[in-house]
Amino acid sequence: xxxxxxxxxxxxxxxxxxxxxxxxxxxxxxxxxxxxxxxxxxxxxxxxxxxxxxxxxxxxxxxxxxxxxxxxxxxxxxxxxxxxxxxxxxxxxxxxxxxxxxxxxxxxxxxxxxxxxxxxxxxxxxxxxxxxxxxxxxxxxxxxxxxxxxxxxxxxxxxxxxxxxxxxxxxxxxxxxxxxxxxxxxxxxxxxxxxxxxxxxxxxxxxxxx
Length: 210
Prior knowledge:
Blueprint: E1 84-89, H1 95-108, E2 116-120, H2 126-132, H3 136-145, E3 150-153, E4 163-169, H4 177-188, E5 189-197, H5 199-206
Parallel strand pairs: 1-5, 2-3, 2-4, 4-5
Helix pairs in contact: 4-5
């Protein structure tokens, strides 16, 4: 019985791929995100006090893979004479959440936890409130160790030492707190100061060039 020759199906060649488009560094969201400088990543910060004392925020770094550094201008080096200032518009109620996002982005893009100091003008960050429940000596010992993200109230900003990045959350507090603490926070920022708060208030303190 004669064999019928197999019909060869035409091959479909993939079309040449066009150039890849790199997403913009910034995103459309409720609050703009800062552009951090390069450094290991992390997981959610510990919550409010519970039966077991939570670990410090740096534990996040060991549980995540550092993401790529955004294709955007990086922060100046720590040796810069004047730190870069980035403003994230936020209400007093949303300033702490905006600061949390900024810290997460900094860690995700490679900043070391010990590079970051967070200052709040109103309610303290839950981590700070929890650690202070063990006493100020233990709390400030973690600050002096300098190996983790540290959260401090604006009233104590004078005691804080310089770190490469300072995140300032203008989340309320007594009148005049931001005006008094923000210039000090600027002196504590070695390379980058990220300010989360009311644009007009921040500009009135640091100048319209922010």
